[in-house]
From TrEMBL:
Pfam families: Acyl-CoA_dh_1, Acyl-CoA_dh_M, Acyl-CoA_dh_N
Protein name (record): glutaryl-CoA dehydrogenase (ETF)
Alphabetically ordered keywords of this record: FAD, Flavoprotein, Oxidoreductase, Transit peptide
Residue ranges of every copy of the Acyl-CoA oxidase/dehydrogenase middle domain listed in the record: 141-231
Enzyme class, spelled out: oxidoreductase
Family the UniProt entry places it in: Belongs to the acyl-CoA dehydrogenase family.
Keyword Transit peptide among UniProt keywords: yes
Catalysed reactions, as listed in the record: glutaryl-CoA + oxidized [electron-transfer flavoprotein] + 2 H(+) = (2E)-butenoyl-CoA + reduced [electron-transfer flavoprotein] + CO2
Domain Acyl-CoA dehydrogenase/oxidase C-terminal: 244-390
Length: 397
């Protein structure tokens, strides 16, 4: 049973909640959760299997996300909702309970593209792009990864050369979310003065983006290879305040934070699907839920979901207090995505053969979470960050 629009704010109908997690949330936070959950129930759930099968990203629901204040929701001014980090996380969990691809869109738009412009952009860049992006009228993408520079973005080859007042960009970016439907791309490139960021209208001559297909994960979302061939930009396209990898990494940290919550949304939805199925499905004359082996699976899943949400909330409260440290984001991202995949796969076993169809969510979530464990720092990268934190010894090279 999932909470619906008719559920009163504060009323706990969370099947996985064993610890009264909701008592830790404010009325505003619970109300936002209900709003986003209702949107997911109405706009995403009825359609997601079809979108996933057809590899369709539903551009048509983007304006509604804008109206709900979900785009750049943690940013202030320029039409953004100015929500807290915890509220952003709660929304991410609800969206990812629908599908990781939709939460990923909100993350690319808000945490990556809009954050880059808001943190590092000029006043002119902010006023030109952010209001339309917050409304969902303009779509943004974030180009950091390249075919030969993934975990180590410092190896990027895309180069921006100065030509008089202009900049001329050449290079290839890979895995860039929504690039073929985006209006604007934040592109990170080497320059004679180190790595810098550029705000590139995708209609610029020499810019092309082609979707990477076919994929077994994140099918209701688009990732592209971008080719930049002599893309000429005016001086005002440079993000004036971003110097070096600190620029993109500050945005990645925003997105990584959102994943900590989002992954638990996918886990919770997988658990709920398995719980409901196990109560209905009879084998050996009894519901599957009545067998000890099934109960152990459900209990183990619920424990990790409760712990994962507690961790997300703790890190969110730290973020809202301005006290969240980068290695703490790695704790959340590594743990919650790893546990979410395990939960989605375990939930699938309870569904038996039916679990491999698109009628049920767990295997779709598990497939999506393979991407989530890879982007925004792989499991290995976050392990190395935490290893360095514990030992003081960097082991990246
Ligand atoms: C669905 C999806 C969406 C994405 N969206 C975007 C986007 O919008 N913008 C963007 O810029 N990028 C995006 N990415 C790219 C993503 O950030 C990269 O895939 C990620 O950084 C890993 O890089 P890679 O795929 O090149 O793998 P590699 O870096 O080649 O890694 C391959 C394997 O080697 C491991 N490895 C690497 N270095 C080490 C080491 N030192 N020690 C041990 N193991 C190591 C990795 O952990 C991994 O297991 C997206 C990716 C996906 C799948």
């Amino acid at each position: 049973m999932s909470q619906t629009a008719s559920t009163a704010v504060g009323e706990t109908l969370e099947p996985a909640d064993l610890i009264d997690f909701d008592s830790l949330l404010s009325r505003e936070e619970l109300a936002l959760r209900t709003t986003v959950r209702t949107f997911v129930d109405e706009a995403i759930r009825p359609n997601i299997a079809g979108w996933f099968e057809a590899a369709h990203f539903p551009l048509e629901i983007v304006p509604e996300m804008g109206r709900l204040g979900l785009l750049g929701m943690h940013l202030h001014g320029y039409g953004c909702a100015g929500r807290t980090a915890v509220e952003y996380g709660i929304a991410g969990a609800e969206l990812e309970a629908g599908d990781s691809g939709l939460r990923t869109f909100v993350s690319v738009q808000g945490s990556l593209a809009m954050s880059a412009i808001a943190k590092w952009g000029s006043e002119e860049q902010k006023s030109r792009w952010l209001p339309g992006m917050a409304k969902g009228e303009l779509i943004g993408c974030f180009g950091l990864t390249e075919p030969t520079a993934g975990s180590d973005p410092s190896a990027m080859k895309t180069f921006a050369r100065r030509d008089g007042e202009d900049w001329v960009l050449n290079g290839t970016k890979r895995w860039i979310g929504l690039a073929n439907v985006a209006d604007v791309a934040v592109i990170w490139a080497q320059t004679d003065g180190g790595i810098r960021g550029f705000v590139v209208p995708t209609g610029s001559s020499g810019f092309s983006a082609v979707p990477i297909e076919p994929k077994l994960s994140m099918r209701a979302s688009i990732q592209c290879e971008i080719e930049l061939t002599d893309v000429r930009l005016p001086a005002g396209a440079l993000l004036p305040d971003a110097h070096g990898l600190r620029g993109p990494f500050s945005c990645l940290n925003e997105a990584r934070y959102g994943i900590i919550w989002g992954a638990m949304g996918a886990a919770r939805d997988s658990f709920e699907a398995a719980l409901a199925y196990s109560k209905d499905r009879l084998q050996f004359d009894k519901p599957l839920a009545g067998y000890q082996l099934t109960q152990q699976k459900l209990v183990d899943m619920a424990l990790e979901i409760n712990k994962g949400f507690l961790l997300a909330l703790h890190l969110g409260r730290l973020k809202d207090a301005g006290a969240l440290q980068n290695h703490q984001i790695s704790v959340g991202k590594l743990n919650n995505v790893r546990e979410a995949i395990a939960i989605a796969r375990e939930a699938r076993t309870i569904l038996g053969g039916n679990g491999i169809t698109l009628e049920y969510s767990p295997l779709r979530h598990a497939n999506n979470l393979e991407s989530v464990r890879t982007y925004e720092g792989t499991d290995e990268v976050h392990t190395l960050i935490l290893g360095q934190r514990l030992t003081g010894l960097p082991a990246f090279r």
